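pasting for ref
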Amino acid sequence: MQGLKYTVDIVFCIDATGSMGHLINEVKTGALKFEEDLTKLMNEKEKQIDTLRVKVALLHEYSKEITVEMGENKKDGRNFEI
């Protein structure tokens, strides 16, 4: 389909509680590499994401709320921090 535009919204929900302490660095590495991996996969399929919005939601100890740690409309997922 020529002229098709892709708008993608992604939310990473990450368990940042103490029980994840031994895995959190692996989670960070995977999340930070996600945009690169997604771009590579889309290129292999000869497709391009025109708008990519990513949010990171961290679940903390004893929290009744989820904290959103990233601003809106980030095209480059590597710009976010966990």
